[in-house]
Design a protein that fits this description.
Blueprint: H1 4-15, H2 20-27, H3 31-36, H4 43-46, H5 63-73, H6 81-91, H7 101-115, E1 132-139, E2 146-147, E3 150-151, E4 155-161, E5 167-172, H8 177-191, E6 197-200, E7 207-209, E8 216-218, H9 220-229, E9 232-235, H10 245-265, E10 269-270, H11 273-290, H12 292-299, E11 314-316, E12 325-328, E13 331-334, E14 345-348, E15 352-357, E16 360-366, E17 374-375, H13 378-385, H14 405-418, H15 421-435, H16 438-451, H17 457-464, H18 481-491
Parallel strand pairs: 1-6, 2-10, 6-9, 13-17
Antiparallel strand pairs: 1-4, 2-3, 4-5, 7-8, 11-14, 12-13, 14-15, 15-16
């Protein structure tokens, strides 16, 4: 079939002085076809609308009585043709097979176009340079990235300029305030300026629910961050994700680019989190390089950065309980028992916790994420537990005292062999790991479990940390050489 574009190209070439053969070859049609379309209407203009049906309408006698009432009641245009067809088959058994779905879809489409409820209109926006950037967190499970062959559960914080096409992204492990704070500040400083408006959905890290009015307002610390950078916030209505189209587009754009880069890479495993973060940075840098001119042109429209950044941590001041634990952000962490009873300053970062006493950093801990609510390091409590091993049986956080699966298997084996005595033996083995090194103890347990032989604390200690062999202290006096000579002469 000849298209309008081919006919227009043919006529253009003829007007430029080409003969029919040359013009037809340029348009990709035969010479005879070119002659037929030399002048007159275009192909689409000659096509006439068909005003008759080629077969009888199967819904003619049920349309007004059965289908139209269903469509009129569907104010949100959610009702599907297959659902209506299913209802018609229930009302009129044997009359409407599933093969009529497409016919019903066309009829419903035409009815809605003429009589249906109004649809929501999307209004395209003009974005002045430097005015707005949209941000969001996005899940990345579909990328199936692994680190050291283990599934890597993470999010990506993304920010995209509404005008200049600049994209920023960094790894995150939850939609927390600290991750949001760090992501926004890093995005602004890497851009070399501040976007005047920050657009987002109603994420709980930046907004809070107003119980009296039912609306949402900015949290105090997010408002302080905006004020520090001289920016304003705009938010979408709850449940209206398409109103934050810039951020949604950034998420889709980034994950598509990452998927393509992973396909070219040939494998999805990374040797470390840092290696994967560098990979993401590289993909983002490639995107920004493609739009370097536009991004650079927008830079002059950005507002000036403040003189300094705000801290990206949240401060807590818990007192260490007699359990040798502190509670931070609804999660429990153990600390060295020497701190029991003291008030600490804890700085919670996106991924870590820093524990200070009297202004001195005493401990760094990985931040708990997701469903994890307790982290007890056996090294913090084992010195007391080894003196009263009976507490192990009903210890509230007992599962935290199995640092690896090997230790768990070792305990289960001890229970099978030694019954209640297993608690004492296991606590002593755990004490051995804390007082020496966990690695050698774990290797010793693995070897004993693989061998299938029974063991206890003494057996494990002999393998992991054997006592040094005592060497007798032999003292040899000074040799009396003249006397030795006399003895030799006598012997001769």
């Amino acid at each position: 079939m000849v298209t309008d574009a081919q006919v227009k190209l043919y006529r253009k070439k003829r007007m430029e002085g080409k003969n029919q053969e040359q013009a037809s070859a340029a348009a990709g049609i035969s010479t005879r076809t070119g002659q037929r379309w030399e002048r007159g209407e275009l192909p689409t203009q000659r096509k006439r609308e068909r005003g008759w049906r080629t077969r009888a309408d199967p819904f003619v006698d049920v349309w007004e009585s059965d289908v139209v009432p269903l469509l009129e009641a569907d104010k949100k245009r959610k009702l599907q043709a297959k659902t209506v067809l299913k209802e018609l088959r229930r009302r009129h058994p044997g009359r409407f097979p599933r093969s009529m779905t497409r016919t019903l879809q066309r009829r419903m489409r035409d009815w809605r176009a003429l009589h249906g409820p109004d649809q929501e209109v999307v209004f395209p926006q003009e974005h002045p340079p430097g005015r707005e950037a949209a941000f969001d967190f996005t899940h990345t499970g579909e990328l199936k990235v692994t680190v050291c062959r283990e599934a890597f559960d993470h999010l990506l914080f993304t920010l995209k300029a509404s005008c200049g096409k600049r994209l920023y992204a960094e790894l995150a492990y939850g939609e927390t305030w600290e991750a949001l704070n760090q992501g926004l500040q890093n995005a602004m400083w890497s851009a070399g300026g501040v976007y005047k408006v920050w657009r987002s959905d109603n994420l709980s890290a930046a907004t809070k629910e107003l119980k009296r009015t039912g609306g949402r307002a900015l949290t105090k610390r997010y408002a302080e961050l905006l004020d520090h950078y001289g920016a304003k916030s705009t938010r979408i209505k709850p449940g209206k994700a398409k109103e934050n189209g810039g951020a949604e587009k950034a998420n889709d754009l980034l994950k598509t680019a990452l998927e393509q880069a992973l396909q070219l890479r040939g494998y999805r495993d990374f040797e470390s989190v840092e290696a994967y973060a560098a990979f993401v940075d590289g993909v983002v840098a490639e995107h920004n390089a493609e739009h370097a001119a536009t991004i650079e042109a927008e830079r002059s429209s950005l507002e000036s950065l403040p003189s300094c950044r705000l801290p990206v941590y949240t401060v807590f001041t818990p007192t260490v309980r007699s359990w040798s634990t502190i509670r931070v952000g609804k999660r429990w962490y153990s600390v060295p028992s020497r701190l029991i009873g003291h008030e600490l300053e804890v700085r919670q970062y996106p991924n870590t916790l820093e524990v200070y006493y009297q202004g001195k950093l005493t401990l760094e801990l990985p931040r708990l994420r997701g469903s994890d609510v307790v982290r007890v390091d056996y090294r913090h409590v084992i010195w007391s537990l080894v003196r009263k091993p009976g507490a192990f049986a009903r210890y509230k956080f007992r599962e935290e005292l199995f640092p690896t699966l090997v230790f768990r298997r070792a305990y289960d084996a001890l229970v099978t062999w030694r019954g209640e005595r297993a608690d004492v033996e296991y606590v002593r083995i755990l004490h051995l790991a804390a007082s020496t090194m966990q690695g050698p103890v774990q290797r010793a347990l693995s070897k004993l479990l693989e061998g299938g032989e029974r063991f206890d604390y003494v057996t494990v200690k002999a393998l992991a940390a054997p006592e040094p062999i005592s060497v007798p202290d032999v003292k040899i006096g000074t040799v009396d050489l003249p006397r030795l000579d006399r003895l030799l002469r006598v012997a001769r």
